[in-house]
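Hello again, I could really use a second opinion on something today. I've been staring at a protein lately and its backbone has me curious. Can you walk me through what the tokens say about the fold? Take your time with it, there's no hurry, and the full record follows here:
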Amino acid sequence: MAAFSAKRIRLSYTQKYEAPPSQVFPLLCPTREYDWIETWRCHLVYSDSGYAEENCIFTTDFPEDGGDETWVVIAYEPDRTIQFVRIGAIKVIRYNITLRDHSDGSSSAEWEQIITALNEEGNRFIESLSQERYATEKKILESLLNHYLKTGERLSLKK
């Protein structure tokens, strides 16, 4: 049997918001993402507050991303950063979102994923990824979040 050699990729994108971190950060939560992401689905496994917090655990099942995954919040600093480890059958993702206050009512956030394959299927998944595709996905989320921050309503992706 040939030895497995895991592939890894780091992807990042910086989003810009017309709101301060205090308005953005609470929306970076598995429960609150229902407010602004039409396609979001998760199952909250454990949270003392019902929202994101350190050691919060939730699951997702997005077939296009490899299916069932368990997410654990490993760092939670309100208005500054939230970090997750996301574990599934084919990959592990270290997910970091770091907010920056621009002191003019706006902010930005670096969205970074470090994705490591757990098997050959995970290697193939990683080979299908690119920085350009990641940036496109994050630009869509940026639009959705800015729309929600501006209007208080979720923007529909359906045509």
